[in-house]
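Schema walk-through. Below, the input block comes first and the output block second. Nothing else is stored per chain. Lengths vary across the set, and this one has 458 residues.
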Amino acid sequence: MPSDPLLFGYSLAVDIETMARQGDALHLHLAGGRSVTLACPDLRGEKIVERLQAGPASHAALADICSDSMLVRILSQLALNQVLHWHFGPPDRPFCRVESFSGTYCPIYHPAEAAVLRQPLSRFACLRQEQGETILQNAELHARLVFLPGGQDVLAATLADPTPSAWRHFLFCTGFLEPVAAESPARESWEFHDLLFHDATRLFVGERPIGKRDRLKGKHPKPEKIAPPLSQDRIALPPVDTDRASASLRQVMALRRSLREPGEWPLQLADLSTFLGRTLQAQLKPDRPDDRRFRPMPNGGGAHELEFYILIQRCAGLDAGLYQYRESEHALYRLPANAALAKRATLLSAGAMGTEEAPPDCVILMASRLPKIAREYEGIAYRLSLLHAGVAMQSFYLVATDMGLSPCANGSGDSLVFERLTGLPLLQETAIAEFALSGRRVTTPAGPAADSERPPLH
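--- output ---
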């Protein structure tokens, strides 16, 4: 049986500075100022902690101290408090260690049949490099395996040879092999990239820093707060119509619908201006000395990393083409975009809605200046950009519904087409969402449009 408890081991993820017993509780004071209390009625449990405090220990060494049940109880508590790592190989020179991002993860050595050790790696596992280290990460476990010097050869042998071995037994015990049983419907529903993204951008009470922090501070200058215009062809938009009556929020939310096909009337420049003004135009804040933008929608840290581009296919008063919207000026800048690519982007939007034969009047392309928000938040920059795009979509829906326009969010798009349209490097500014907007309809969700609302025909 390919099993060796001497090669499966445990170590402390953080140093224990002091340890004190009080009744059935064991109080640990950790480096960094954190304290942990373990339920430890048996002195043998304390001996396990003392053994780990002395250095990495194999499962066999800890199993000699106490029963399996006591060992599992103490190790599980250490794992729950993010104090435990696991390793494969001799304790003094392991090949790899396993780091957990969740207190719910606590693999324990146990025997296994040779057949299960032939299982392939989990489909949720991925191999990557990070700061010079080779890492095998499993999003399903909220854990990763970090290879130490000499350990990469062990992994290469595993990928090439499924023969049961002590190493494959370690992978099985730590959950990195694919289960033999058929997947449950819930598990099968998750695709690799979705679970990887979810795992990487949730906290999971883990060791990775996530949240408000500038990990590049002192290394690179911050990007410009406001993106510069991409052309000199400026078009000032008509004034925003502030006199038009609006329905109540309750009414607008009840009437909101996705209207995939364009209306009978083309989008009007005046309507587009009012729509952009109500959803995106930056408001001046005289009491603020900085040049931070204040759009009429929330944004993490006020970063407002999203940029908005208007791809016009049909708009009375505005030529077809691609425009950059500058919310601080309430103006459009026409970009020298390739007409064939612009048409492709419009048709992609129509295809996302299933209306290939009736493309929308315009497509709003939302692009994230990810380097900008990444200087505000570590670990969740892209997640925040997606959340911000969702916030923008809801604002677009509500304002378009109130104005009697035809709105529809897109579920997909092509960031490479955007890159070629604008000439912007993909990693500097990339399209992450699209929203179709068309003119008013003869019949709206609220009923026939009033004569006073109907635009002139062109």
